[in-house]
UniProtKB/TrEMBL annotation:
Species name: Plakobranchus ocellatus
PANTHER family: COILED-COIL DOMAIN-CONTAINING PROTEIN 134
Protein's recorded name: Coiled-coil domain-containing protein 134
Region (Disordered): 138-181
Compositional bias annotation for Basic and acidic residues: 148-164
Biased composition (Basic residues): 165-175
Length: 181
């Protein structure tokens, strides 16, 4: 399966999960997802370090190392989907774990130096890095992936009072009195 197809399927699954999860349970679901995601990335990092893989080199020859590199790619983009679509609840959990930022910085570097991603995928990686604090945000940075529930809402303004309608005047001409008939 191609990476783009896998990512599309991954995004659909995440959207379905967010629609089904009660808002009261959202925090615990996110915590569980991120804990598992970063645990997989920690294990993948250990495997790649053990075989001596350096970012930007050719893909590793060993199947375990290839699998680990694949997990880094998949989980980095999955975290990006979560972070860019639901930044507020993700930051609540992510910001509590300083070690996760180190892992994500390493994963971003691995992904960026791999040279396997299309320009739009590289742009997505850069958005992840900006939203997570790896790269500084531009003054005009805007997250294009925000769900409607995350977009800043306009401040409520009182509606203008309805204008009172003036009754229409019916023009009346001279009246005929019954005696004139």
């Amino acid at each position: 399966m191609r990476f783009a197809q896998y990512r599309s399927m991954q995004a659909q699954v995440m959207q379905a999960v967010f629609k089904k999860v009660d808002k009261n349970q959202l925090g615990s679901v996110i915590s569980m997802m991120l804990t598992n995601l970063f645990q997989i990335m920690i294990e993948a990092r250990a495997n790649l370090t053990q075989v001596g893989y350096v970012a930007g080199e050719e893909f590793p020859e060993f199947s375990d190392a290839k699998e680990s590199l694949s997990k880094v790619f998949e989980n980095t983009f999955m975290f990006g989907d979560l972070l860019l679509r639901r930044p507020t609840p993700i930051h609540v959990e992510y910001d509590q774990h300083t070690d996760w930022k180190d892992i994500l910085t390493w994963a971003y570097y691995i992904c960026s130096k791999s040279g396997v991603f299309l320009p739009e995928e590289q742009q997505f990686l850069d958005l992840i890095a900006k939203e997570s604090g790896i790269l500084p945000k531009d003054a005009n940075f805007q997250n294009p992936y925000l769900d409607d529930s995350e977009k800043p809402r306009k401040r409520f303004e009182d509606p203008k009072p309805a204008e009172k309608k003036k009754p229409k005047k019916i023009k009346r001409g001279p009246r005929i009195i019954h005696s004139e008939f």
